[in-house]
Design brief:
The chain is mainly alpha-helical. It contains 13 helices and no strands. 79% of the residues lie in helices and 0% in strands. Residues 162-168 and 294-311 have low confidence and may be disordered.
């Protein structure tokens, strides 16, 4: 049974994040402290310095040799179900279209794994929840974000295909090769790519040979990474404050976004979890971590803008 102490732990873990978000929102909307150029500079600071070190710091804490492969397979199955359903909807229904397929996939599959997930799961399930969420974030960034970028590039290519190309098969092969290269270049330019890979390499070496990170390096990383969650939520507040309305879409689309986040995502994860035989707290973590969110389920348009910015 859930007690008041458990509820307080969750509230105590999540409340500071939304304090940072409200401060970011209010600094522009109410107090007029920053203009658009200032907001862009703060977002760049977060993107190129704070968040990569934040990602690296958490990635180095895992033990790759003790991966829960059932949890990973369940995550892959759940997202594969969503991809299949979205693909069928986009290709075989009158209302289906590619841009909305990307938005629906991002809403039902991707989340604020480290920023929101770590404090929430740590408060609810302790080290087990924190460890599983970090591993989920590595899988998300190294695989699912790459697929999302590839979907964005296909969308752009679809708009600019040359109608003079005579061979459809040749065009498809050329497009796929070019798009794959574009995605690889974008990932190579993303500091989080290096942070995730380097963190995983250090985790492999440190757990294999019992290495300890030098204090001077650990301190240099943590002095920036400790600000990661707060700055990320603050930046989200800045972006929200720059919009004319906090929720730009209609109430119908907002409800659709919530259904995708809070019903479709947990349901598909539950299917994947039962197929691989997850039980107990691991099953609970698997289902809860896919539905957690940091305000971005409230507006499909807002989500689409944020995701488009990384492509």
């Amino acid at each position: 049974m859930i007690g008041w102490d458990d509820i307080y732990k969750v509230v105590a873990a999540m409340f500071p994040l939304y304090v940072a978000l409200i401060l970011g929102y209010g600094s522009v909307k109410w107090w007029h402290m920053f203009n658009s150029d200032h907001c862009d500079a703060i977002n760049r600071l977060s993107c190129y310095f704070i968040m990569p070190l934040f990602t690296f710091d958490f990635t180095t804490r895992i033990d790759p040799y003790k991966m829960n492969y059932r949890f990973i397979v369940a995550d892959v199955i759940s997202k594969a179900i969503i991809l299949l359903a979205i693909s069928l909807w986009a290709n075989f229904t009158n209302k289906g279209n590619y841009p909305w397929s990307i938005t629906c996939f991002s809403l039902s599959s991707l989340n604020n794994t480290l920023v929101v997930g770590v404090p929430l799961m740590a408060a609810m399930y302790g080290p087990l929840g924190e460890n599983l969420v970090i591993k989920s974030s590595i899988l998300q960034f190294m695989f699912w974000i790459m697929i999302l970028l590839l979907m964005f590039e296909f969308q752009r290519a679809k708009r600019s295909l040359d109608s003079d190309v005579s061979s459809i098969d040749t065009r498809k092969r050329t497009s796929l090769l070019i798009l794959t290269k574009i995605v690889a270049i974008k990932l190579a330019k993303n500091p989080n790519s290096y942070a995730c890979v380097m963190g995983l390499l250090w985790a492999l070496m440190s757990n294999r040979w019992n290495l300890e990170m030098p204090i001077i390096i650990k301190g240099s990383v943590q002095i920036m990474s400790r600000a990661g969650a707060g700055v990320a939520m603050f930046c989200m507040g800045l972006v929200m404050s720059m919009q004319e309305k906090m929720i730009e879409c209609s109430a119908k689309l907002a409800v659709l976004g919530m259904v995708l986040r809070f019903m479709v995502a947990p349901a598909t994860m539950a299917v994947g979890s039962f197929l691989v035989g997850l039980r107990g707290n691991i099953l609970h973590v698997a289902i809860i971590q896919v539905s957690k969110t940091g305000f971005h389920s409230l507006s499909l348009t807002y989500v689409h803008k944020l995701l488009a910015s990384i492509a």
